[in-house]
Every structure is written in structure tokens, then in C-alpha cells.
Amino acid sequence: MRELQLNINKSFYVLLCVFAAAVWGFGALLNDFGKSSFNHVELFLALVIVLFCAFHLALSLTGQRKAVFCSQGLYYINALGKRRYVLAEQITGVKVLSVFGLKVTKISLVDSTLLFVAFNPCEKQLAQLRVQGYAI
Q1: Average per-residue pLDDT for the chain
Q2: Based on the number of CB atoms within 10 Å of its own CB, is 43 exposed (0-12), middle (13-18) or buried (19 or more)?
Q3: With 70 as the cut, is the pLDDT of residue 32 above it?
């Protein structure tokens, strides 16, 4: 069984950090820093986003979160830590879309669709998926 682990989508994590910085910066521009409770909420929200990003990036780098294609199907660990396995017969297509510079891997199943934003295949991996029989 040949396994093909998808790459970590670095642009997803960069975009989350930029979004957190924009939320914090927007609040700092609107009000005097420290005088409004709205700023504290924005600062807390930005901190939660950055900690979420750092936590999930650390899990992805250590292999605790991953998405792996093989000849029998797709194995992935979702954001909540649940292990999922999808048989190759249920996968009808794999597409890599670019939305605002963020690559989104769309995996079409017989009855639903999976979207991966934290993982994406590179061009070499897409070629290997075509060889394994996946419709791309």
C-alpha cells in the first residue's frame, strides 16, 4: 500500500495570523486602547485565533493531524482529533481550488464533500494521485 501524505498548507496559517492582527488593529484604530471593553474582546478574540493557529500548526508538524491518500482510500484526522477513513470507491474526484490565495482541497464523495484547508497536495502529489487512479 503506497501512502501519500498531503503537505501542510502554510498559507492557511499565515492567513489566520493576518486575520487576527487585523482584528486587533481594527479595534486599536477605532478606540483608545485600554478605555473600551470592546478592545478587550477584540484582543481576546485575536489571542484565541493565534493560539488556535499555533496549536493546530504544532499538531500538524508533529504528525498528530494529517491527511493521507493511499490506494485503498483517504485517512485523515479532523480538527477535533477524530480519525476518519474514506474508501477509494466513495471518492469521485479531487480538486485543488485557490480562494483569495488560500488553497482548498475539495474531495468529492458519493454522498458529501470534504474540504481541507490545512492540507493540500503539491503538483508532484497530484500526479501521483492520478497514477493511483483518483479523478483529478
Answers
A1: 86
A2: middle
A3: no
Q: Let me know: does 9 contact 103? Beta carbons within 8 Å.
A: yes
The tens digit of pLDDT for each residue in 54-80 reads: 998 998 888 888 899 988 899 998 877
The region that residue 17 occupies, defined by phi over 0 for left and psi between -120 and 50 for alpha, beta otherwise, is alpha
Alpha-carbon distances of 133 from 70, 100, 123, rounded to whole Å:
10, 29, 16
Handedness of CA 38, 42, 45, 51 (dihedral sign): negative
Grid cell listed for 29: 484604530
Q: Residue 23 is inside which H or E element, if any? A: helix 10-30
**Is pLDDT of 36 > 80?**
no
For 102, the 3-state DSSP assignment is strand
How many percent of the chain have pLDDT more than 70? 92
**Any idea what DSSP says for residue 117?**
S
CA distance 89 to 73: 8
Q: How far is CA 68 from CA 57, 71, 74, in A?
A: 17, 10, 6
